[in-house]
Design goal:
- The chain contains 4 helices and no strands.
- The chain is an all-alpha fold.
- The mean pLDDT is about 85.
Length: about 80
């Protein structure tokens, strides 16, 4: 049923089936924009991950302390709720 609706919508909008179904959740959204977004992430994230991992190697105690403090803050916040 969804496929038939998507096909009819694709014909009416003059776009692909995927784009027609995507329009249900992201009006005006197109797969080309999603492809571009993921291409940006694909270019950006490996370097970021490498820098984060390198920093954690240099500062393991500081990273562990931040996680511990963050965990306590989350626990205190949820206890107040």
């Amino acid at each position: 049923m969804t496929r038939r609706i998507g096909e009819a919508k694709a014909a009416a909008l003059g776009c692909s089936l995927y784009d027609a179904l995507l329009d249900e959740f992201e009006p005006g959204g197109r797969s080309a924009r999603i492809d571009a977004l993921f291409a940006e992430l694909r270019a950006f994230l490996p370097d970021l991950l490498g820098r984060v991992m390198e920093r954690q190697k240099r500062e393991p105690a500081a990273a562990a302390a931040r996680r511990a403090v963050s965990g306590r803050a989350s626990s205190a916040s949820s206890a107040r709720s």
